[in-house]
Structures are given as C-alpha cells and as structure tokens.
Amino acid sequence: MGLHLPYYRQTQMMAAKGVDIERSTLARSAGYAAALLDPIYNRLREIGRTRTKLYTDDTRLPILAPSTGTTHKGALWIYVADDRNSGSQEPPIAWYRATMGRAGESVMSELAGFAGTLQADGFTGYNQIYRGRGDHASCVRGKPVNGRSEDH
Q: What residues are paired with 76 via a beta bridge?
C-alpha cells in the first residue's frame, strides 16, 4: 500500500476492507521491491556525487526495532542537486537514505567522493566533510549563508 505504517497496522486496515494478507507477505514484497530498485538508487547517488552543489538535510523518525516492539530514533536524509536557478541544464536529482541513527558517519559514507559545495544546516556531523575542504554553504534559520570550512 505504500503507507508509512508498520505492517501489522497495514494488515489490520486491509482486513477491515476484506483483504486477508500476512505481515510476512508485505515484508517480503517490500524486500523484493527494494532489491529491484537498488541499482537505480545507486545510480542516482553516483550521479549526485558528481554534481558541483548538493543540499542535504535530515528529519528524525521512529524506526520499529524488529521483534522487540520498541522504536529507535532513526533519521531520514535527503540529498538534492538542483541548480536550475543558476542556469544549469542538468536535470534535478534527489535521493533519500534512512539510517538507524543520526551519526555523521552516515553522511560521510553517503557522500564519499563528493568534492563539490555542500549546503546543509549546522549539524556537527557535517564537520567531517567540511574539514580540509573549500567552500560550503550553511543554512541559518532557513537562509543560506556562504562559508568556508575554516569557519567551523
């Protein structure tokens, strides 16, 4: 169904509509879909890393821990390259990454090999990327501010 709901809730909703489906079927289907989409995701990320500017941000979200019924504080990261306002003819590109936490290592591995300007908020996890690099752009209260790595 493509809902941001745990499978047990989706099966309950479908059962209310007369559709009997097991959680394991939903999980297996999602796994198959993820495996099929993985090459596309990897190609989007590969292209994105070659762009001259990238924007990134994250939002916290609870992630259900398997078999425990408890949740972890996960993060959903977005990476966007869209320089059309500066006259670029390159098509915009975006990709997402869900992680079990908000550690800077997640960003480091996702942006490995990226050498362009990164626009991001003041999250300290980005400092590892800024270190030893040239220009980056920071956002302060949603407004872009040009900066350099030595500003951090």
A: 59, 98
d(C-alpha 25, C-alpha 30), whole Å: 9
| Spatial separation of the C-alpha atoms in residues 146 and 108, rounded to whole Å | 21
Q: What is the DSSP string of the chain?
A: ---SS-HHHHHHHHHHTT----HHHHHHHHHHHHHHHHHHHHHHHHHHHTSSEEEEEEEEEEEEPTTT--EEEEEEEEEEE--GGGT--SPPEEEEEEESS--HHHHHHHTTT--SEEEE-S-GGGHHHHTT--EEEEEETTEEEEEEGGG-
Query: What is the token pair recorded at 102?
Result: 């908000």
- 81 neighbors 53 (Cβ within 8 angstroms): yes
Partners of 56 in the beta sheet?
79
Question: Per-residue pLDDT tens for 3-30?
Answer: 678 888 999 999 999 999 999 999 999 9
Whether the CB-CB separation of 76 and 34 falls below 8 Å is answered with no
Confidence of residue 1 (pLDDT cuts 50, 70, 90): very low
* Identity of residue 150: E
